[in-house]
Amino acid sequence: MVKVWSYFVAIALVSTIAPSSKATGLLVARFGGEWGHPMSGELWSIYYNPAGLSLLGGTRLALSGSFAWRSFTYTRDAGAIDQILEPGQPGAGTPAGEGVAVNSGEASLFNVIASPFFAVGSDFGIEGFGAALGFYVPFGGQSAWDQTASSDTFPGAVDGPQRWWTIEGTIRSMYATGALAYRIEPLRLSFGLGLNVVISQIDNVLARAADGTDDLVAGGGLKEGRARIDVSSVDLALSAGLLWEPIDELVIGVSYQSQPNFGPQTLSGEVDLAISGGPITGDLKQDADVTQSMPDVVRFGVRYGEPKCWQVRAFADWARWSVLDKQCILNTTSATGGCGADSPRKIIIIPRYWQDAWGVRLSGSWWASEGLELVFGGGWDGSAVPDETVEPALYDGDKLSFTLGAKLSLDGGLDLSLQYTQLVYPDRDIAPRGRVTDASGRQISDLSQAGIPDGERSPDAAGLYQHSIGVVELSAQYRF
Fold first, then answer.
1. pLDDT tens per residue, range 402-425
2. β-strands 129-144, 105-122 pairing
3. In CATH, what class is 3-479?
4. Which of 64, 60, 43 has its CA nearest to residue 480?
5. How many beta carbons lie within 10 A of that of residue 343, not counting itself?
């Protein structure tokens, strides 16, 4: 992150949740691929439905790697700029001509990220029992945007027009899970419980003006600034699930994953600012908290088929992203005050106002031979982010996904699988907000159209979003 510290002038701060990937809203779990679902009887069930551990039948070890590429282009609409200053016009804003050119236009990235999954489980010789330990990253991502042409007049422009939301950053929630399951054979019913230790991290750098606008200059000097937030937390979460086999080879599964910390969570660390405007002046590094809420998730599905011949699966998930109404970055110098515009702890409040999201999927398997299983799948996932608060750092949209893969079962208990998933996002074109005149006579974006209080002001992220993701999943399982 060395490049972003070359230019600091004013107060700034925002964090990211995640570059979006596969699954409902911004959930990014892909471990297990087409075998990762709420009806699974393999080790992937430690996350998707712990009741499936009752079907392990022996001891198993699983190791998986998800390797994703992400291509993203954001073209900012010049109509999204707050105040455009004509030649010779005094005040704060974006100068016409070169200023408008560097505060709008195209930004792009192409990133590759790897995410691991590891689990070990056993029945310990007890019929119908299963227990497992695992480590994985169901929420997470990172992004680093390409630099654009430099400008002697506006040195911050090199970081691209998306810089008001993110320049580069990482966010992840890593899960260490222990889970137990048991099958009541006369009822053909399995139940499972899991305890998750969730390690959450945010490390993000971006540009922002002290008043939440996208002004490049003020009073004859530069106004744009930089900041970095580096925070983390350790929280607990629970999971629970049921599996029922009403008739031979028909399995119904339902599971629930709680929110980390069972509600709002607080990540603690440091905010590093270099500023020259707003209520605080000078360079500042201070202790800070970030408060936010991640969703709980419900999954449901059915599978049916003839063993080692064919199988079909249908499943859905619902993520309660509506709990994420805002992110609050608060200083820790005051013992009182919360996430409010007048709070003595407020550094900045970031509006989210996300919405619950659904996803549905159909998949199937066909055994070309006893040891070779071919899989395919397709699904739709809804967007958690409404037009009013969509922006490049936390982009999401409705999407389709398609998967092809194969699993090879070798003598000695080793299974190897390879899958590829392509996510298809329709282009999303967001119109600029309306404009209102502030107390000083400046034109700024009208937050009231989106129901956002003025104390949560951030630049208008209107423009064209073009997004694509591909995921390669490599997995190995060993049965003892």
1. 999 999 999 989 999 999 999 999
2. antiparallel
3. mainly beta
4. 60
5. 17
